[in-house]
UniProtKB/TrEMBL annotation:
Spans through the membrane: none
Top-level taxon in the UniProt lineage: Eukaryota
Pfam families: LRR_3 (PF07725), NB-ARC (PF00931), TIR (PF01582), WHD_ROQ1 (PF23282)
InterPro entries linked: AAA+_ATPase, Apaf_helical, Disease_R_plants, Leu-rich_rpt_3, LRR_dom_sf, NB-ARC, P-loop_NTPase, TIR_dom
Keywords: Leucine-rich repeat, NAD, Plant defense, Repeat
Species in which this protein is naturally found: Camelina sativa (False flax)
Coiled coil regions, renumbered to chain: none
Protein name in the entry: Disease resistance protein RML1B isoform X2
Length: 1033
């Protein structure tokens, strides 16, 4: 690389002696000497027609070549051959057009052309062509033109400065170690397609503080040497140029770019064609950082034709729409780093290392979460915590929860301040009330706010201030939420339409200071003492639409005391009151406008009486409202989409009005343990998900919807499914775990992928299950009356039938449609011989199986009792090595282990990676069991661990290894694919098993291992490529 090379000369000059040696060149040499720049001196070299070898060597050993193109330069074949050699070396070249026009050099015309023709008269056609191409190439390189300077001395000074800067420009290490930067740069290099000769514009987009500028700087640092000219124009947004019209702003921006890229201070331009005129024949790299206005792009990069072939223009912005409008379709979106990467970014700033010190992991992870994985926040807060003690950390964390660091706010606030006043209002409402809420809900709640919500959401999305998730949730970064809250706090108190300060809210509610301007209240009651509200605390706030009362920390104390039947404002669209202290809502409560009702953890026993206008209600949550005894009439809630009744333990009955909820999509009643009555024929056409897990008194499940996709009635008393189950063609998941009264399932829905019948009373699986071609997981564990398994679909990848104590026959074959299958028949002691044969002889290449007993197939050649087995090839196999084998473990129980424990087995090669990859989980056996799985020698990621007594990580013995067996597998590899491992002495493969943690220090095992499978001594076969090995010693 150039950075590591030692150069003999800094500069090699190519010139015509009579033209410039005693004038221009002498002054240039003196200037170079004053700056410590060494320039090759050709005084001792004899001139001739053929360029001297010493001269060629000097060209190669010079970092930069200066070509002084004067009137008589082309009259010398020496000079022309010298130029050819310079361009052939591909070092840095700077042309100086001394009293000649670059176009005369390029086209060989004028005085320069006449001198060139004389030189060509006595040369070959091939050499002439080389000279012409060299002159064209050098004239296309950016350099200095004497005619552009009023004073030759100034030009010489500028040349010396430029050369000095180029000599000092070594590859930057400023970005080494920046977390994730390498991946970003790799992706962008691919997008830039640097081998393409077309001019390309590429955008880098993402929210403020995500690292766009850093990525662009790193790119510029790495790529600039590949271009004739380059510049990084930072913070273009900040170039406001107040007092100028649009033309003046464009002219100012062009002047700034050209001055920077040409390194000429005080440059003057008189028209907007200046960039095109100066750069159209130059290969340039230009980074336009933090662009926020189309005018800026029009001024600096309006057309690709402004720049020479191979040029790249990189634009960083928060506004995706701006890139689209300018026709920039190659856009790289910078995403938030992963949790692990964010923690490392923080640690590098806070601890100057990539991981937290011992004892500080939890604190570091908490701060990382508070920063929301935003790189700017992580670096600023991390740096501020450098050298601080734990108490100081906690102070900073407390501040982060309620306020922003001023450096972070200065960056993030810019995007907010650039918004239109209506978009600012929308931004603030999302920050305070609507983060993580569904888009259509927010649109409905802002219906009367005089805002163009859809346009505003699109604007905020394009400016990277919010994100719309795949499930249409509006997501705003938590630090941007703080920006919104700060925007409210900067307003004068009498102008605030949203109240968020707890003390201010207490004063307003207790002293009746509310006004018509207030549209929203966000009241965190965890930071106040107690407040007692009057019968009509909201009477002056007739335009209040959003009321959110919550606790950031739950302490069990009632901090807000309300009178019975306290009145709410008449136009509420959002009522969110966590731990509402009243037993019911006011009979005067106007529900006509309500879109969302969230009364989580309330003390409500009922909501309201009679029929209410509920046409706008879309979402209702009464989660953990333990005292709720009844639901109101919901017949008018015809647009309700989500109903959350989880853990409403005293709720006994769903009202008959449920049949009117035809827009309902999600019904969650898990934990309603007293629920007994559900309307039988409600058939809700939009219902997709029903969760009644834990409704332990529910005996019948209704004909609820033919469009249902997921049903969970685990831990219920349901006896049977309705007959209409055969018409549930959209059902994907059906869970009935521990519904012990369930005796039979007559039909299996045709599109099911997940079926859990564990610990039910079923005696038979319906035969039509074989037609369910998408079924992947089937759970039958603990079905003690199940006697046989019918033919199952070939799509099945997981079957759990452990503890099926009556199971005798298995009619199915596995692994037909998928290479990975897990079969668990632990403690199924009545399996007949045919069933055992079917299970043992499965041919799937990945996965595992377990069943009682120790009987093995007769075709197994190698087995051993004890801790190890060795299988030499002894010439039995052809010139190839088997890469995998089937392992059979005979395990026996340890009766001192816990009754309900499951264990994870892992597989690895000795010397393989320490991190374990699970192979399977096996329930605790009550007798000897056979466990079998395939072990792939090529897969470096999997490894098996089972220590000598099946010891788990807590030291308790759960099962014991009794025998190890091996069977050849079908995979083979030729010698050319084997890997060489020079440290291997025995030419054997080893497999170790352990159910506990890996006790390895370097390559030394510090604990005993139960057994080793030692096989494939192939040193006598693979002699030309070294030894085959799959692990260390």
């Amino acid at each position: 690389m150039e950075s590591s090379r030692t150069w003999r000369y800094s500069v090699f000059p190519s010139f015509h002696g009579q033209d410039v040696r005693k004038t221009f060149l002498s002054h240039l040499r003196r200037q170079f000497n004053s700056k410590g720049i060494t320039m090759f001196d050709d005084q001792d070299i004899e001139r001739s027609q053929t360029i001297a070898p010493a001269l060629i060597e000097a060209i190669k050993e010079s970092r930069i070549s200066i070509v002084v193109l004067s009137k008589n330069y082309a009259s010398s074949s020496w000079c022309l051959n010298e130029l050819v050699e310079i361009l052939k070396c591909k070092n840095l070249v700077m042309p100086i057009f001394y009293q000649v026009d670059p176009s005369h050099v390029r086209k060989q015309i004028g005085d320069f052309g006449r001198a060139f023709k004389k030189s060509c008269a006595s040369t070959t056609k091939e050499e002439k062509q080389r000279w012409i191409q060299a002159l064209i190439d050098v004239s296309n390189i950016a350099g200095e033109h004497l005619l552009n300077w009023e004073n030759e001395a100034f030009m010489i000074e500028k040349i010396a400065k430029d050369i000095s800067e180029k000599l000092n420009a070594t590859p930057s290490r400023d970005f080494d170690g920046m977390v994730g930067l390498k991946d970003h740069v790799k992706e962008l290099r691919s997008l830039l397609d640097l081998d393409c000769d077309e001019v390309m514009m590429v955008g880098i987009c993402g929210p403020a503080g995500i690292g766009k500028t850093t990525i662009a700087r790193a790119l510029h640092s790495q790529l600039s040497s590949n271009f004739q000219l380059s510049c990084f124009m930072k913070n273009i947004r900040g170039s406001l140029n107040l007092g100028l019209d649009e033309y003046g702003r464009k002219l100012r921006l062009q002047k700034r770019l050209l001055s920077k890229i040409l390194n000429q201070k005080g440059m003057k331009i008189k028209h907007l064609g200046a960039i095109r005129d100066r750069l159209h024949d130059q290969k340039v790299l230009i980074v336009l950082d933090d662009v926020n206005d189309l005018v800026q792009l029009y001024a600096l990069a309006d057309q690709t034709t402004w720049f020479g072939p191979g040029s790249r223009i990189i634009v960083t912005t928060e506004d995706k729409d701006l890139l689209q409008q300018h026709g920039i379709n190659n856009v790289y979106h910078v995403d938030f780093p992963s949790r692990e990467a964010a923690l490392e970014i923080f640690c590098r700033c806070a601890f100057k290392q990539s991981y937290p010190p011992v004892g500080l992991l939890k604190l570091a992870a908490s701060v990382t979460e508070l920063c929301g994985n935003l790189p700017l926040g992580l670096s600023v807060i991390g740096s501020s915590l450098l050298g601080k003690n734990e108490d100081e950390w906690k102070v900073v964390m407390h501040r982060l929860e309620t306020s922003l660091d001023q450096d972070i706010e200065a960056v993030l606030r810019v995007g907010y301040e650039s918004l239109h006043v209506e978009d600012k209002a929308l931004f603030v409402r999302i920050a305070v009330f609507f983060n993580y809420k569904e888009r259509h809900l927010v649109t409905a709640m802002l219906l009367d706010c005089n805002l163009d919500v859809e346009y505003g959401l699109n604007t905020l999305t394009k400016k990277s201030l919010i994100n719309i998730s795949r499930n249409e949730q509006i997501v705003m970064h938590k630090l941007l939420q703080q920006v919104g809250r700060h925007a409210i706090q900067r307003q004068e108190p009498w102008n605030r339409d949203i109240l968020i300060d707890a003390k201010e809210i207490c004063d307003v509610l207790e002293n009746d200071r509310g006004t018509q301007i207030v549209s929203g209240i966000s009241f965190d009651i965890s930071i106040i003492g107690t407040v007692s509200l009057s019968q009509m605390p909201f009477k002056r706030m007739c335009n209040l639409q959003f009321l959110s009362v919550f606790k950031t920390g739950y302490d069990g104390k009632d901090r807000v005391h309300i009178p019975e039947n306290m009145e709410f404002p008449p136009r509420l669209r959002l009522l969110q009151w966590k731990a509402y202290p009243g037993k019911s809502l006011s009979p005067k409560f106007n529900l006509e406008y309500l879109v969302e009702l969230d009364m989580e953890c309330s003390q409500l026993e009922k909501l309201w009486q009679g029929t209410q206008p509920l046409a706008n209600l879309k979402k209702m949550s009464l989660l953990n409202s333990w005292y709720l005894k009844e639901l109101p009439d919901l017949s008018n809630a015809t647009n309700l989409e989500l109903l959350d009744l989880r853990a409403c333990e005293n709720l006994v009955e769903l009202p008959s009005s449920f049949s009117s909820l035809h827009k309902l999509k999600y019904l969650d009643m898990s934990g309603c343990r007293r629920l007994q009555v559900v309307p039988l024929h409600i058939n809700l056409r939009c219902l997709e998900l029903v969760n009644m897990n834990g409704c332990s008194r529910l005996k019948s499940f209704p004909d609820i919807s033919t469009n249902i996709t997921s049903v969970d009635i685990s831990y219920t008393a349901v006896v049977e499914l309705p007959e209409t189950v055969r018409r549930w063609s959209h059902l994907r998941s059906l869970q009935m775990y521990k519904s012990r009264n369930l005796k039979a399932v007559t039909h299996v829905p045709i599109n099911l992928t997940y079926l859990d019948l564990s610990e039910t009373g079923i005696e038979k699986i319906p035969d039509d299950i074989k037609a369910v071609h998408g079924l992947q997981s089937l759970f039958l564990s603990g079905c003690r009356k199940l006697a046989s398994l019918p033919e199952l679909p070939g799509s099945l990848t997981y079957l759990s039938a452990n503890e099926c104590e009556s199971l005798e026959s298995v009619s199915c074959s596995f692994g037909q449609s998928t290479p990975y299958v897990e079969l668990c028949f632990t403690n199924c002691f009545k399996l007949n011989q045919e069933a055992r044969r079917r299970i043992i002889q499965q041919s799937f290449p990945y996965g595992w199986a377990s069943l009682p007993g120790r009987e093995l197939p007769t075709e197994i050649d190698h087995q051993s009792t004890g801790s190890s087995i060795t299988i030499p090839l002894e010439g039995k196999n052809p010139f190839s090595a088997i890469l995998g084998f089937k392992v059979f473990l005979v395990i026996s129980p340890n009766y001192d282990a816990e009754e309900s424990r499951n264990f994870t087995l892992f597989c690895r090669r000795i010397g393989g990676p320490i991190d374990a990859t699970p192979v399977y989980i096996i329930p605790k056996p009550r007798a000897e069991h056979l466990v079998m799985f395939h072990f792939d020698l090529l897969n470096q990621e999997k490894y098996l661990e089972v220590d000598e007594e099946g010891r788990s990580s807590d030291g308790r013995n759960d099962y014991e290894i009794d025998q190890v067996y091996e069977d050849d597998w079908s995979y083979e590899i030729g010698p050319g694919e084997a890997s060489e491992y020079p440290e291997n002495n025995g030419n054997i493969d080893r497999l170790i098993c352990d159910s506990g943690e890996d006790n390895i220090e370097g390559n030394k095992h510090i604990d005993c291992w139960s057994w080793l499978v030692l096989c494939f001594d192939v040193s006598h076969i693979v002699t030309t490529i070294g030894s085959l090995v799959w692990g260390g010693s």
